[in-house]
Automatic annotation (TrEMBL):
E.C. no: 1.13.11.29
Matches recorded under PANTHER family: 4,5-DOPA DIOXYGENASE EXTRADIOL-LIKE PROTEIN
SUPFAM superfamilies associated with the record: LigB-like
Cited NCBIfam families: PRK10628.1
Lineage: Bacteria, Pseudomonadati, Pseudomonadota, Gammaproteobacteria, Methylococcales
MF terms in GO: stizolobate synthase activity
Residues in Extradiol ring-cleavage dioxygenase class III enzyme subunit B domain copies: 37-257
Record key words, sorted: Dioxygenase, Metal-binding, Oxidoreductase, Zinc
Protein name as annotated: 4,5-DOPA dioxygenase extradiol
Length: 269
């Protein structure tokens, strides 16, 4: 995927620090309303970042045929779950959208067809973490879908093609979990040995900037148990694609809990 000829001119931003990129292990939707260790960490993280002009989220919870990008003025808050308390369904995150930015992204990514979407909104992969990081909900938020037809390599390359947004103060967030097996959940603060082992191996590969090894995540031992489906791991590949060679990575909320859910989060840059 060669997109360099279509990249915007960012010379006006020379000398200005690039916006970091984040992968966040979002875990249970209840983290949106619980004052727990993860929600506190997200709140502190949000305070530590300079305020972005806009946020682009790649959530595990929006899979489509082809790539879609929200492009409405006011995205709705989607409650894409069931069986939780009414307080969670009463939650809203009234952040504005940014149709103009969405159009620029669509026009820039000419070799990656992206369709403007005005039906989806923000699912809990986005708003359950943003409500703690940026509680004022005053930053425009866009959400990018995961194309079911793309390979892990294609998802990674799409992340690379979005690098220019970091130079325009757009905060890109991948929201998922590097270990996510709901069939193996244990409802207490513990973890299966295989879940911890897989998470540690992924962390080693991230620290070593071994992107090839992470794109081939299905070859990692315990992958079949740790991520029986791909959608929660794929958002990590976008953030890896946004990383420049040698760019630092910080680890946050490095914990595997509920048996088979890794809450590992990272910051690139």
């Amino acid at each position: 995927m060669n997109t360099s000829e279509h990249l915007p001119d960012t010379t006006a931003n020379l000398g200005k620090p690039r916006m970091p990129a984040l992968f966040i292990g979002h875990g249970s939707p209840t983290n949106a309303i619980e004052a727990g260790e993860f929600s506190r960490a997200w709140a502190e993280w949000g305070v530590s970042l300079r305020k972005p002009k806009a946020i682009l989220c790649v959530s595990a919870h929006w899979q489509t045929e082809g790539v879609r990008l929200t492009a409405m003025d006011q995205p709705t808050t989607i409650h894409d779950f069931y069986g939780f308390s009414q307080a969670l369904f009463d939650m809203g995150y009234p952040a504005p959208g940014d149709p103009a930015l969405a159009l620029r992204i669509i026009q820039t990514m000419r070799q990656v067809p992206i369709q403007a979407d005005t039906d989806w909104g923000l699912d809990h992969g986005s708003w359950s973490i943003l409500c703690h990081m940026f509680p004022a909900a005053d930053i425009p938020v866009l959400q990018l879908s995961l194309d079911r037809n793309q390979s892990p390599e294609q998802h990674y390359q799409l992340g690379k093609a979005l690098r220019w947004l970091r130079d325009e103060d757009v905060l890109i967030i991948g929201s998922g979990n590097i270990v996510h097996n709901l069939q193996a959940v244990i409802w207490r603060d513990t973890a299966h040995t295989w879940a911890v082992r897989f998470a540690e191996r992924v962390k080693q590969l991230i620290a070593g900037q071994d992107h090839r090894g992470l794109v081939r995540y299905r070859e990692i031992s315990d992958a079949a148990l740790a991520i029986p489906t791909d959608e929660h791991f794929l958002p990590l590949l976008y953030i890896l694609g946004l990383q420049d060679e040698g760019e630092k990575v910080q680890f946050l909320t490095d914990k595997t809990t509920l048996g088979a859910i890794s809450m590992l989060s990272i910051q690139v840059g």
